Each structure stands twice: as structure tokens, then as C-alpha cells.
Amino acid sequence: MSEKKENVPKLRFPGFTDAWEQREAKDIFNPIVEKGHEKLPVLSVTQESGVVYRAEVGIDIKYDPLTLKNYKVIQPGNFVISLRSFQGGFELSDKLGIASPAYTIFVPKETKEQDNLFWKTQFKTFKFIELLKTVTFGIRDGKSISFSEFGNLKLYFPPNKEEQTKIGNFFEQLDYLITLHQRKLNNAKNLKAGLLQRMFPKNGGDFPEVRFPGFTDAWEQRRLCEIAEFNPKSMLPDEFEYVDLESVVGTNLIGHRTESKESAPSRAQRLAQLGDVFYQTVRPYQKNNYLYDLPYDNYVFSTGYAQMRPSIDSYFLLSRVQEELFVKTVLDRSTGTSYPAINSNDLAEIEIKVPLDNDEQVKIGSLFRSLDNLITLHQRKLEHLQEQKKALLQQMFI
């Protein structure tokens, strides 16, 4: 096979057929060693947030002006190798400021021939991170690599800047969509958290701060065992779908596996019935609790869940046990530090305030069901985009 056919990505934009070039990084980039100025803001570089002003992320350190003079200037359009470079911590700055001398800063030698967004994406690919390990192997956690170490890496790139730009812009737009759906997901989660605080009475109160029109009666206090049957006994089917503690995330069932009665784990004991609420008794702060609403009679949950069969609205109960003050009450009665856990008997004795009007329960439950569905929708869209990006990074780079 010719070299031209070998040095091409699996997927590329129409109209581009030339082989990609390979050069050492030091032939493509130049290091920046401009010393700092104490009047410029101090920057920090993280893989989570990129290049950020330290003061904006709550890091307000009083620096000695003599120390700041040794800091390096970072300009918009500079590449920065973060202190966790061995994990692929290469960032493109959009800010002016100064950063610790430990950071490595560089720019393309020929800006008219290289596209920054292309290289920004290249530095995030799995292939580049694996290549990076060839020079960072053995570097202790927290140390950045030097430009000379980075400069020896051999990098592939399209010689046509137009192709670089198309690739860079494409992934920039994809990153924008990912950020947009992440923001929507965070907003939905924050809305749910806020409503959980306001739609249930606070400790000692009989009325929630926010409620649906037409409901004015005080809520009444009930032990959980008075409004739900705990761990009802049942005969397991010969074959069933087993749900362990890793199978529920948030309020979603993300997995299960087929087991037989003879070979199943001893913890497989809770046979689910429509409307049952399963409360994770181990590490309850994770809030991985599930309302069983599947049309099957062969799902069996681990004894790591307390099974509640409510006499009140099921989704109201699920929402109630997700509320932060309830979780705190559970943790106060839990044992263990690394893996706090509460047994079903102690959980059953916890008291909560409940509206006696079933219609109010149903309205509250329906609201939180809608919010959970919205959260799930945004989560799936986000994961789909992230998987798309991962696959495209593999196919559009060498």
C-alpha cells in the first residue's frame, strides 16, 4: 500500500484526498517564555474548565510581586500544557493573564498554515494521549512535561489548512452542542433539587413552602412503615432479571442480568411488583432509588435495597425519599463511614410529613416524574453526543 493511502484518516470531508504529513512537534510549534507582569490576572488550567481566572473559581491567593514576575504570560491563542499533562491536559487559551512557571506554553510557528481549533481537537484525541504516554511514562503525578519532551512527538496533520479548519470548526460546534445539553441537564437537576426543598415541609413544619392551588390542609406525620409495606415476602421465579447496587443510577434502571434461582447471588431476594419503591440502603447519599414501573413480574432486586410497597402514591414517595433533609436523616441513622448503610428496620421507623389528600400526592408525584423524564432525556442526548464525538475523533485523525 502506498504511503499516500496509509497516511489518511478513515473519515474526512469531501474534496480532500492528499495524505497527511508527519512532523515532530518542535517543527510545528514554538515555545513561549515571556515572563509575567504582576498587574495581569493569574490563570489556572484544568481539564474540566480549560483556562480560567483563578479569582473566578474561588482561588484568591495574595501573591508576592517578586513571585509573579517569574510567572509566564499566556495570550489568547496560546496552547498551554497543564500540570496533569500525562492525562492529556492540553488547552487552548482564550484569555490574557499569567500562570505558574510550571506550565508549558507554545504556539504554531506558521499561523497562516496551522489552525488552532484543529490542534486543540487533536490534543484531546485518544491517539494523542496514548502517544503522550511515550514521553510522560514515569513522570510523577502533578508534573508537567517540558517543551523539549513534547517537541519530540511525531504528529500527523493535513497540509491543507482548509481541511484543518473544517475539522476544527466541526468539533468546536460539536463541543458547543455537548456544552448546551450539559447545561440543560444541570438546569433540570437544579430545578428538581430546588423543588424538592420547597414542595415538602421543612423540619417541624406542617405546610410546604410551595404547593398546587386548591390544597390548604396541613400535612400529617407518618412513619414509613405506616405508609408502605417493607420487604414483602415472595417466591422467586426459576429464572429472573437481577438488579444489583450498580444497576440503578439516579432514578434510572441502567442494567440488569439474567440469573437462575439455583445460581443467583444470595442477595437476590426482592421480587418487584408494579409501583414498588426500592431505596438504596448502602451509601444513601447517592440517591440511587428506583420506582418499579415495568410490565414484567421477573425482576429481582438485591437486598442492598429496601423494598417499599406504598399505600400512598408511589412517585410521591420516591420523590419524598430523594429530598435532602430526608437523606440527612437517613445518614444520621446509618452506620459506617466509608460505606454508610441503614438497615430496613431503622429506615421503616423514620417519620415523614404526608398530605392526606391523595390528589395532592398524585400531582406532586406527577411533577417529579416529568422532571425525572426530562433529566433522563437530556442525559441520553448528552451521552449520545459524547459517544458520537469519541467515535469521530477516532475516525477523523490518524
Please tell me the total number of domains. Answer: 3
Helix-strand category: alpha+beta
* Gyration radius over CA: 28 Å
How many helical elements?
A: 12
Mean pLDDT across the residues is 91
CATH topology descriptor of the largest domain: Adenine-n6-DNA-methyltransferase TaqI, Chain A, domain 2
Main beta sheet strand tally, sense and closure: 4 strands, antiparallel
Span from first to last CA? 16 Å
Number of strands: 22
* Corresponding CATH superfamily of the largest domain: DNA methylase specificity domains
| DSSP strand content | 15-25%
The CATH class of the largest domain: Alpha Beta
Query: Strand sequence of the main sheet, in spatial order?
Result: 2-9-6-7
Shape: elongated
GO molecular function, one term: endonuclease activity
Keywords: Coiled coil, DNA-binding, Endonuclease, Hydrolase, Nuclease, Restriction system
Domain Type I restriction modification DNA specificity: 19-187, 272-386
Protein name: Restriction endonuclease subunit S
Keywords:
single chain, about 400 residues, alpha+beta, Adenine-n6-DNA-methyltransferase TaqI, Chain A, domain 2, Helix Hairpins, four-stranded antiparallel sheet, about 35% helix, elongated, endonuclease activity
Task: Report what the structure shows.
Strands 2-9-6-7 form a four-stranded antiparallel β-sheet. Strands 12-21-18-19 form a four-stranded antiparallel β-sheet. Strand 3 (43-46) and strand 4 form a beta hairpin. Helix 4 crosses helix 7 and helix 9 (314-322) packs across helix 12 (358-396). The longest helix is centred in the last third of the chain and has 39 residues, at 358-396. Helices cover 35% and strands 20% of the residues. With 398 residues, it is α+β, with helices and mostly antiparallel strands. The two termini are 16 Å apart. 28% of the residues are buried. Belongs to the type-I restriction system S methylase family. Residues 19-187, 272-386 form the Type I restriction modification DNA specificity domain.
